[in-house]
Structure to design on (223 residues):
């Protein structure tokens, strides 16, 4: 019995040692998790108190900063009025055009100017620059001409009028985008540039753009 008891004692000790080791590992694991969580929340708290970093991210996208020029204000009006005649023109293309390419161009006009018009109205509000609710008399005259045309005559008139007006505003957009000091106008000029580029592309895809139209656009560039 005595020798049996001596043999049993190391086994019991080993059991206690294993239990202690397991307990120690559990404590180490808990402390590690707690430290990791503490570091993580410290990082979040630290980030939340970095106004300079947040401002730098928000600045180029959404801020309104920088002086407005007379050209900036004119540009806002031009973007608004482009939408006010091109959206009706795009709708007319769906019913009056003979070519699918013209109908497609009309859809691009409708979609592009719906978005651009929304942006122009928001910028007008934010910048306190009033914008008109009507297209110019000349633009309304173009819509009236389109209302009276049908089929192939409509297709050619549509391309002549729209490619000429897009070419002319494209020149103004470059000037505004390159020189404006105002962040909202800069963003609007970028969006307008993309939209007008798209509209020139779909108009050219119809195969109906003439040299006469391009000469007309060229004649408006100041020498
Ligand atoms: Fe357009």
């Amino acid at each position: 019995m005595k020798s049996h008891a001596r043999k049993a004692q190391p086994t019991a000790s080993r059991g206690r040692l294993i239990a202690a080791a397991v307990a120690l590992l559990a404590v180490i694991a808990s402390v590690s998790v707690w430290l990791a969580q503490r570091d993580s929340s410290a990082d979040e708290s630290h980030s939340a108190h970095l106004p300079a970093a947040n401002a730098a991210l928000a600045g180029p996208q959404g801020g309104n900063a920088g002086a407005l020029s007379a050209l900036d204000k004119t540009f806002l009006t031009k973007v608004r009025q482009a939408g006010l005649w091109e959206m009706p023109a795009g709708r007319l293309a769906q019913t009056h055009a003979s070519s699918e390419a013209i109908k497609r161009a009309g859809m691009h006009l409708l979609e592009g100017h719906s978005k651009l018009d929304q942006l122009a109205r928001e910028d007008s509000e934010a910048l306190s620059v009033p914008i008109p609710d009507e297209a110019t008399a000349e633009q309304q005259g173009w819509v009236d001409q389109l209302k009276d045309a049908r089929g192939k005559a409509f297709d050619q008139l549509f391309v002549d009028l729209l490619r000429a007006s897009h070419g002319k505003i494209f020149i103004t957009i470059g000037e505004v985008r390159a020189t404006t000091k105002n962040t909202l106008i800069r963003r609007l000029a970028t969006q307008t540039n993309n939209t007008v580029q798209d509209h020139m592309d779909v108009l050219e895809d119809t195969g109906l753009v003439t040299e006469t139209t391009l000469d007309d656009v060229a004649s408006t560039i100041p020498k």
In short: The chain has two domains: 2-58, 70-218. Residues 70-218 form a domain with the Ferritin fold (CATH 1.20.1260.10). The chain has a mean pLDDT of 82. The CA atoms of residues 112 and 195 lie 6 Å apart.
